[in-house]
Structures are given as structure tokens and as C-alpha cells.
Write a structure and sequence with these properties.
The protein has 207 residues and is of the alpha/beta class. The protein has seven helices and eight strands; from the N terminus they run E-E-E-H-E-H-H-E-H-E-H-E-H-E-H. The chain has an eight-stranded mixed β-sheet, sandwiched between helices. The longest helix is centred in the middle third of the chain and has 15 residues. The chain is globular and about 40 Å long.
């Protein structure tokens, strides 16, 4: 069972769930946030929280205050960032830190990576644009970590209506930074391909 902790933020209390790494010293800490339409029960977050500690990584899942309060709709991006940043600070993480998350959580991590002292960003289903609206691109957020010299890696569903892998690759300097996996904006019940891609990417994000 994870260690649960409530953390106060300007938007109310959030929660952090820590999954300890096997062994005395974790290779790195991976902090992940949830999306705007779901919570920490997303299959990819559940799988990574269970499997990465066995590989030596400590995993912390962040539950945003709006979700803790029982609201069904996430707040505006600035409110998400304003909660995320103090929660990361309160965790007092020492050593390499990869931040990331699913969908809206990936956007938060990209926008704030430099501010929280991350060593890299892991994006799961980055919502490059609203479905059917490629002109409303969020590529600037995706590239924000790189603007600060931080690596970013993306795991994207092959049929994601928010932007497929090729669309995401076109926005980054190296196409190998994006792994296409089966699925749409969600990855199915047992997204083993997401785990495999994450394990491939993490060394670059935590050194």
C-alpha cells in the first residue's frame, strides 16, 4: 500500500501517494499527475505505480485539490500549476526527479518542470490539441522543458484524437523522443507497452 499524505495548497488540500522503491536507495523519484477527466485510477498510472518500484524507482502520484474536493471538472491551467508546485516542494525530494503525468497532468509537468527542479519530463497521452482542432496547438507547452535544457519524452496512443505520435514527433527535435503505443487517449486495461516505453525513457530523464 502507498503512503498517503495530505498537502495544503492555495487551491485547498491535495494528496500525494508514495510507492517506495525496492532496495535502500531509489534510482530516482518519478512524480505523476492525473488528467482533467479522470483520476489516479487510470490504467497507465496504476501500472507504473506498481511496476516501477520493482525496478528501483520511487513513484509518487499527485491528486490535485479539485479532485480531492470531489469536483468533476478541473480548474484552469494556472490553478493546477499553483497547486502542483507547492506540493512538489513539500515532498522534499532529494536526488533525480522526473515529473510527468497523463494528459492535463503532462501539461502541468511541462509548464512547471524548471520551477520544481525536475531533471526531465515524462508525458503520457500529451493532449497536443483538442480533437479536430489541430490549429489550437499546445506545442509550446510540450517544448517548454527543452527551452530550459530539460529532456522530455512522450508515450502517445497511435489513435489519439488529441494528436497522434507523428503529430507529436513533428513538434520535437528528435522523433525518437516519442513512443507510439496501442490505444487512443487511453491505453487500455493493461498498457504493458506504456511500461516498456517508460522504462526505456527514464534513464534519459533522471540523469
Amino acid at each position: 500500500m502507498p503512503e498517503a499524505r495530505q498537502i495544503e495548497t492555495p487551491g485547498g488540500p491535495g494528496r500525494a501517494f508514495t510507492y517506495a522503491a525496492s532496495g535502500p536507495d531509489p534510482l530516482a523519484t518519478v512524480v505523476l499527475g492525473h488528467g482533467a477527466g479522470g483520476g489516479l485510477g487510470a490504467s497507465d498510472l496504476v501500472l507504473l505505480a506498481r511496476a516501477l518500484p520493482e525496478r528501483g524507482y520511487r513513484v509518487i502520484l499527485i491528486e490535485q485539490p479539485w479532485k480531492v474536493a470531489g469536483r468533476k471538472i478541473a480548474g484552469r491551467p494556472p490553478t493546477l500549476d499553483a497547486a502542483w508546485v507547492p506540493m512538489i516542494a513539500a515532498l522534499g525530494i532529494v536526488g533525480p526527479l522526473a515529473v510527468g503525468g497523463r494528459s492535463a497532468g503532462a501539461r502541468v509537468a511541462c509548464r512547471t518542470a524548471a520551477e520544481v527542479g525536475a531533471s526531465g519530463v515524462l508525458c503520457l497521452s500529451f493532449p497536443l490539441h483538442p480533437p479536430g482542432k489541430p490549429e489550437a496547438s499546445r506545442a509550446g507547452e510540450l517544448r517548454a522543458p527543452g527551452d530550459h535544457g530539460l529532456p522530455v519524452r512522450v508515450v502517445q496512443g497511435e489513435r489519439d484524437p488529441f494528436g497522434g505520435p507523428d503529430e507529436v514527433r513533428a513538434e520535437l527535435a528528435d522523433p525518437s523522443w516519442v513512443a507510439g503505443v496501442p490505444g487512443t487517449h487511453s491505453f487500455g486495461r493493461t498498457p504493458t507497452e506504456v511500461l516498456a516505453a517508460t522504462l526505456t525513457f527514464l534513464p534519459a530523464l533522471t540523469t
